[in-house]
Amino acid sequence: MAADEASLVPAWLEPMLAKADGGRLRSGPEWAYEYKLDGYRAAMRIAPDGTTVLTSRNNIDFTAEFADLEGVLAPALDGRAAYLDGEVVVYGEDGRIDFERMQERRGRYVRHQSGPKGLEFKDVPVRFLAFDLLRLGDRSLLGLPYDERRGLLAELPMPDPYRVSVVRAVTFDELAADRRTPADFLAHAASAGYEGVVAKLRSSAYHPGQRPDSWLKHPLVRTQEVIVCGWRPGQHSFTGTLGGLLLGAHDPVTGDLVYIGDVGTGFSQATRAELRAQLEAMERRTHPFVTTPPREDTVRARWVEPRLVGEVVYRQFTRGGRVRHTAWRGLRHDKDPADVLAPRAVPQESAAPPPPAPSSAPSPTPSPEPAGQRITVQAGHRRLTLSNLDKVLYPADGFTKGEVINYYSRVAAVLLPHLAGRPITFIRYPNGVDGQKWFEKNVPKGAPAWLRTVRLAGTGGTIDYPLLDDLPGLVWAANMAALELHVPQWTVESGTRRPPDRLVFDLDPGPGTTIVDCCRVAERLHDVLVADGLTPYAKTSGSKGMQLYCGIRTDDPAAPSAYAKRLAQRLAKETPESVTAVMAKAQRTGRVFIDWSQNNPAKTTVAPYSLRGRDHPTASTPVTWDEVRACHHVTRLTFTADEVLDRIEEHGDLLAGVAKDSAPLP
């Protein structure tokens, strides 16, 4: 073997990702189970001569940062190349994986990048936990079943198990032989401090860059009462309102008020305004805690008297006493601040998993009744009665009506601005996505008297449309199994229809095409629209295609359709083999249909963040232009409800600028 070949590491592959299981841990002999790890996803790529490269899930080189992992597996490979998929983790003093210590270590590394390369951190050692083997020697293992890949991985000797090891995996049959169940494995994961469990189909191949149904993650979540001790003003799309809350609770041992973290998601627009008004009247000059919180957590903080009690959902309570992955559920007026205790670590010997967060709107009171019965919840300033929260609306994922309500409650802050003032058309699925659906424009009988409506002339007479501009209205709609929310490109004011303020292009892939083809058309439309002085924004449809939006100013209701039609016909003329501007199905095979007609004042388009009535709980999701340009596989732009929530936490509302960037229609 030539020297240059010996040092050639296997080419990087985009990792396969796990899909959320909708709250239902899969069970059966076809499944295997692994712990869900809380570290940095990484590929360990090893050349025949032992040269080792560690790469992040986004193809960032980690090798220098984790220099103590370099070459650790080389002695076990006997001159063979290898590609391992896994996670780099750090352990705490209690022997559990500790993401907080990993973050501290990362901060130190970043601050010292200008120092010696390969800087070691002997006081915070890292460990690579492998859970898949993608290549061994000259052989690609991607097409092998999971069981065979894991078997080959298990056969590899671990020369230094303190630095590299294999994640424990157990099959359903192995659990059954021990008279145990997947639920027992989940309970052990909870007691051992893991993030959750990943169920993997034993017959499945490895699909780089995809998020298929063969890997399903089941995260563990908890609820916690908290004392509101401060707040931060919002930034970007939340400028002028509340951005987040700083939380406290009493130490269970000393009774002292301690800082336990913050929360910045799960608020409706109305809730942000209401909370800010309450908190401004309670402000104080200094923090109320027994010890000063970390400076990085308190930038721009405004402190308040610790009187208000709320509730959050969270996934982890860290060694440092912080709740992580939080979302706001609502105020708890029935609770006294003196009774709020900080969470405690789950004892190692505990066998029971933490209870899942109730799948309902914020702040349920009282506790849920048995499955199929009713529960009263506080949503914003309204009390609503919800029913059948356990009813499965997405059978393929076990995603229930309660989870639908929970999703809409948590996206309210970014969704409601896109619904404000726009008459809503519902698509309801009362018996789930496999049952009958129906469109509903008129407000149904039994709607609450407080629901805002608008009466507009329609083709068959007048229609009383619902207007959803607050959390209670959104929760009410979700409780009716109104999975899909569709809106026009215009708003109403004082009962009068205003001129269009949005231009939309609906890119619909015909037979033989996918959203990947839509992305290529979207790139071309982007350039044309920018040249015409408009600022385009992109979102997925949540189904097969995508839409582009531009904020516009025009007094002519017919002008947007005319302009969009001209552009659609122009692109179709330039590339008739891949684009059509004609709705006829016979013209759409192998082409992307640019549907310009949704700008007609009588038409509607699925709202951003709306769920779709498909097999899985996917949602119409705003995306960046970098994501559009990088999309070369359908799964890259397919997002489930859980993934949308994660994206909002990371990006905020990627469509927030549509109104701000409005320009005259060319």
UniProtKB/TrEMBL annotation:
Pfam families from the UniProt entry: DNA_ligase_A_C, DNA_ligase_A_M, LigD_Prim-Pol
Catalytic activity field: ATP + (deoxyribonucleotide)n-3'-hydroxyl + 5'-phospho-(deoxyribonucleotide)m = (deoxyribonucleotide)n+m + AMP + diphosphate
GO MF: ligase activity
Gene3D superfamilies: 3.30.1490.70, DNA ligase/mRNA capping enzyme (3.30.470.30), DNA primase, PRIM domain (3.90.920.10), Nucleic acid-binding proteins (2.40.50.140)
Annotated Pro residues bias: 352-369
Keyword annotations from UniProtKB, A to Z: ATP-binding, DNA damage, DNA recombination, DNA repair, DNA-binding, DNA-directed DNA polymerase, Exonuclease, Hydrolase, Ligase, Manganese, Metal-binding, Multifunctional enzyme, Nuclease, Nucleotide-binding, Nucleotidyltransferase, Transferase
Protein EC: 6.5.1.1
Residue ranges constituting the ATP-dependent DNA ligase family profile domain according to the UniProt record: 119-251
Entry-linked CDD domains: Adenylation_DNA_ligase_LigD_LigC, MtLigD_Pol_like, OBF_DNA_ligase_LigD
Region listing for Disordered, in residue ranges: 346-373
DNA-binding listed as a keyword: yes
Cofactor(s) needed by this chain: Mn(2+)
NCBIfam families, sorted: ligD_pol, NHEJ_ligase_lig, NHEJ_ligase_prk
Record-stated family: In the C-terminal section; belongs to the ATP-dependent DNA ligase family. In the N-terminal section; belongs to the LigD polymerase family.
Protein name, as recorded: DNA ligase (ATP)
Organism placement in taxonomy: Bacteria, Bacillati, Actinomycetota, Actinomycetes, Pseudonocardiales
